[in-house]
Design goal:
single chain, Rossmann fold, four-stranded antiparallel β-sheet, 10 helices, ATP hydrolysis activity, nucleotide-binding
Length: about 325
């Protein structure tokens, strides 16, 4: 998979992103298969030389086991955490070089859907206040226009306008995640970062939420950065996919390419761990796959782009 040339207007560009833990933990490091040295000791790199681009209207999936650095990457893309080096550009502007006021206004263009629909909604607030929060953060103060837009967004995600007067505990997990998606849509964002948006849901509900995201992508032209450990979820929504392992991108391509001809043993193990018809999901950690199989040197297409250059993709 190659990246679009920088002559095209990319919505999101991540260049040579690295992040290091700097503070040692207060407890001794314990061996934990699959965890990087940084995660076991609290020191060292958690992301190394991450580069990719995302054109408008396209979706990119980032897959890897827990501990691969995916959620840290999502927080940095959302400007919730600063990287040790590298840049994150949205519509050509470096998010980490903005003033707090510039960043507050820029957040209209990018929103996040979190993993846990139970903890991401304030249980003491009515749904109307939860869903309209992004508009209030942008300075909107007129209650009637905000409520009308909230009603529109709730109906767009398959709920009812009357649900605005309820509290989170009155909804199922799948409905709560729909509320979180409605909240993210309130500012008409260009990009939604979704960090494991279906992993906390029942299997029967996961497909419904993924179908909703796909419908919103087609309707509004929204780009998604989908963080997941589930390759099937990424295959459902995304045109392109990156495989992360211990803070590095080790392979990239379209979901079809990586499903049918994965090059790295780690990617092969991820695919093998997917549930098959009539079988349960394999429970052993992928890190315990023959470690004896060393990761191959990534091909040119899998190498991170050098700073200031595109990472070789065309037509995301």
């Amino acid at each position: 998979m190659s990246a679009p040339s920088t002559s095209r207007c990319n919505l999101l560009e991540v260049r040579d992103l690295s992040h290091h833990y700097r503070q040692p933990r207060r407890w001794p490091a314990l061996p934990w298969p699959g965890r990087s040295p940084a995660q076991q000791t609290g020191q060292g790199p958690v992301l190394e030389h991450i580069s990719f681009s995302l054109p408008p209207g396209h979706s990119l999936g980032i897959v890897g086991e827990s501990g691969a650095g995916k959620s840290t990457l999502a927080r940095i893309v959302m400007a919730l955490e600063r990287p040790s080096r590298g840049s994150v550009r949205l519509l050509g502007r470096d998010l980490h070089q903005m003033s707090p006021e510039q960043l507050r206004l820029a957040r209209a263009d990018f929103q996040m859907v979190f993993q846990d629909p139970y903890s991401s909604l304030n249980p003491r607030q009515r749904i109307e206040r939860i869903v309209t929060e992004p508009l209030r953060a942008l300075g909107e103060r007129e209650p009637l226009p905000m409520r009308r837009r909230a009603e529109q967004m709730l109906e767009q995600v398959g709920l009812h306008s009357r649900d605005l007067d309820k509290y989170p505990h009155e909804f199922s997990g799948g409905q709560r995640q729909r509320i979180a998606i409605a909240r993210a849509l309130m500012t008409r964002p260009r990009l939604i970062v979704a960090d494991e948006p279906v992993s906390a849901l029942d299997v029967s509900i996961q497909a419904q939420v993924l179908d909703l995201l796909l419908e919103l992508k087609k309707t509004y032209g929204i780009s998604f950065l989908l963080i997941s450990h589930d390759m099937a979820a990424i295959h459902h929504l995304c045109e392109d996919m990156l495989v992360m392992h211990q803070g590095r991108i080790i392979e990239r391509g379209s979901p079809a390419q990586l499903f049918h001809s994965p090059q790295q043993p780690y990617t092969q193990a991820l695919i093998a761990a997917m549930p098959q018809l009539g079988q349960g999901r394999r429970r052993e950690r992928l890190a315990q796959q023959p470690q004896q199989q060393q990761l191959q040197q990534p091909s040119a297409a899998a190498q991170p782009a050098a700073p200031g250059k595109d990472d070789g993709r065309e037509g995301h």
